[in-house]
Amino acid sequence: MTTTMYGSPASLFSGKARAYLDWKGADYTEIAPNLQIRNEVIVPAIGRMIIPVVELSDGTMLQDTSLIIDHFESTLGSPSIYPDTPRQHFAARLLECFGDEWLVLPAMHYRWNYNEDWILEEFGRNMMPDAPRDQQIAAGTMIGKQFRGFVPILGINEETIPGIEASYEALLADLDAHFAKHDFLLGSRPSIGDFGLIGPLYAHLYRDPASGEIMKRLAPRVAEWVERMVAPSEPLSGEFLPNDEIPPTLIPVLERMMREHVPFLAQTAALFSDWLKQNPTGDIPRGVRMASFEIEGVKGEGIARTFSLWMLQRALDYMSSLEGADRDVCLDLLQECGGTALIDFSMPARLAYENHTLVVADG
Ligand SMILES: N[C@@H](CCC(=O)N[C@@H](CS)C(=O)NCC(=O)O)C(=O)O
């Protein structure tokens, strides 16, 4: 048996895993989960329906793209998508967190407010490729309801949409300027940061037709980067920039993360800390209350997602593992991009992701 990825072309995180596996030259087959796979493979193994899931040849089931990526990084070896110099490595991990956990806002907004009819039909097509169109639409509508339901919970509504769009368009402009000079975020090789960004920027913001039109019109070089990412012409090729350089064109992207995402993460941490005091031994919920955010001058509230803290912890752990000059260059980078809040970021507890569930780590 070979390695199988259960994933779907319309899924954000499947896009992240697929782009990585293809760049890494991994030998795998992708299967879009139908009802049977959902009920007999994914839900029993993971405890809930979620994609992507990778099933290894020995039957091991991996979920969460970060863990999938780390598995293949260790088994397939170099070249790595983790730069081996401190500043680039840290920046790449921060951008993975930003892509995975914050750019889900524009991704979900553009999908559901610009592409709804198309995506419902697409969900149905993937689920029942041989069924008649009306049955596909009915099935797609059923699945779509759950995802559509996330839109208001994430804080996407009439008041916040102008801020989300202004932010996304500015991000596109920043990335367009960056990709005029570099093929990927940190040189001619994609890093974990590129794979974090490709999740939202591929399935929802490039592949959904109305979103794709916007991206190609406003930021053609970003669309070309998406194309490079999802169809690597030379897997395993390229280099990170020398001298641990963070290109100046990437600073505005990091600044955006620090301005928009990090305060939201800080609130998430505070709300989770309150929750933990009241539920010291309870199962950690996916969301704890609503946290406020501000995006291009517009205020909103979105569900405080505990998983985001685990993603941030991964980046901060890397910085904590460094000493001396290596650590100093990361601190300088945070200074430079307005990210000093991350220097003493107060994590309510040490988190671990075990058996596909977020838990407070022992000890
Ligand atoms: N952080 C996870 C997230 C996976 C995820 O959220 N997948 C979406 C599809 S793109 C899903 O299946 N969501 C169902 C749900 O969250 O209930 C990863 O990196 O794999």
Automatic annotation (TrEMBL):
Matching entries from CDD domains are given as:
GST_C_family
User: Can you say what this protein is called?
Assistant: Glutathione S-transferase
Q: Which domain of life is it from?
A: Bacteria
Pfam families per the record?
Answer: GST_C_2, GST_N_3
UniProt source species: Erythrobacter crassostreae
Q: What's any one GO cellular component for it?
A: cytoplasm
Q: Which residues form the GST N-terminal domain?
A: 6-76
